[in-house]
Amino acid sequence: MTSSENERIVLAGEDGTELELYVLEETRLGGRDYLLAADTQEGDGTCYLLKDVSDAKDKEARFVPVEDPQEAEHLLDIFGELLDDVDLEA
Predict the structure, then answer these.
(1) Would 51 be classed as within a structural domain?
(2) Alpha-carbon distance 20 to 6, whole Å?
(3) Which of 2, 5, 67 is nearest to 34 (CA)?
């Protein structure tokens, strides 16, 4: 996926708020799908590490933020290698 083809996703909060994000990259690790998404398509923005927690029977994927620091650090390393022209900071 190139940056010009960034897919948009919308995360719905439990309080009814929505956050529109642009998918920068995706990977599969240990049988689980992960996304690196940002709140802006270009330039500096806030990045989010998301993992798919949906079941096979779910009609839509359910992505939640990665909260485990070790898991997040490992994913940042992977996404950093996949996107060698992007500077990712924790």
Answers:
(1) yes
(2) 12
(3) 67
0.90 cut: is pTM over it? no
Q: Which residue has the tokens 């009609």?
A: 59
Residue 72 to residue 7: CA distance in whole angstroms:
22
Q: How many domains does the chain have?
A: 1
The answer to whether position 88 is within a domain reads no
Return the number of other C-beta atoms located less than 10 Å from residue 28's C-beta. 9
Q: Is 49 helix (H, G, I), strand (E, B) or coil?
A: strand
Q: Closest by alpha carbon to 65, among 36, 22, 25, 44?
A: 36
Domain range spanning residue 38? 3-82
C-alpha 12 chain-centroid distance: 14
Q: Indicate whether 27 belongs to any domain.
A: yes
Tokens of 86: 């992007």
Q: What is the pLDDT of residues 56-77, one digit of tens each?
A: 888 888 899 999 999 999 999 8
Asked if residue 87 belongs to a domain, the reply is no
